[in-house]
């Protein structure tokens, strides 16, 4: 299972506020047919699942700002693809918390 963190930024919009674009992207993510878990943060969104599914979803999400009038979109993607054992967002957080409680 892979974990992908992404940020999608429409460029050249009429306002500095991006929350409507983020909301539109989250709606599309909620309706994804692919079996993924996701978490939105204040600065990005993280999704976990099979890498092929995640890349398909990100491609679809990248299109959302264009569908809402943006003429240019910048998407940043960070991939953590661990193959020696199962990893998840929660597992990674637990691992750090366990080490903090030593």
From TrEMBL:
Q: Which domain of life is it from?
A: Bacteria
| Matches recorded under Gene3D superfamilies | 3.30.70.930
Coiled coil stretches, renumbered: none
Q: Which InterPro entries match?
A: MTH1187/YkoF-like, Thiamine_BP, UPF0045_domain
Q: Where are the stretches annotated Disordered?
A: 75-102
User: What protein family is recorded?
Assistant: Belongs to the UPF0045 family.
Q: What is this protein called?
A: Thiamine-binding protein domain-containing protein
The organism that produces this protein has a lineage beginning with: Bacteria, Bacillati, Bacillota, Bacilli, Bacillales
């Amino acid at each position: 299972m892979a974990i992908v963190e992404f940020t999608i930024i429409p460029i050249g919009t009429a306002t500095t506020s991006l929350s409507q674009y983020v909301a539109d992207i989250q709606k599309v993510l909620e309706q994804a047919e692919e079996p993924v878990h996701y978490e939105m943060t204040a600065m990005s969104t993280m999704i976990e699942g099979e890498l092929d599914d995640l890349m398909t979803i990100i491609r679809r999400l990248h299109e959302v700002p264009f569908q809402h009038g943006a003429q240019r979109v910048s998407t940043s993607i960070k991939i953590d693809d661990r193959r020696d054992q199962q990893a998840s967002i929660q597992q990674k957080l637990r691992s750090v918390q366990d080490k903090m409680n030593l």
